[in-house]
Amino acid sequence: MTSQSEISVDWERRVAEAWATMDSFAKDDFISRIGELAAELPADSAVGLFEHACA
Known about the structure:
- The chain has 3 helices and no strands.
- By secondary structure, the chain is mostly helical.
- The chain starts with 8 loop residues before the first helix and ends with a helix.
């Protein structure tokens, strides 16, 4: 599993930005955006899986 230390501050910023602006996305576009961000992490990353599931 990915440890929190393996997740960059930039990645966290981009995820937070996506969530903060989620109303500006169509539903499927938002899910895709979070999926793209999650895909930057290892496939077994609990953080990536969590973010994608929440979307």
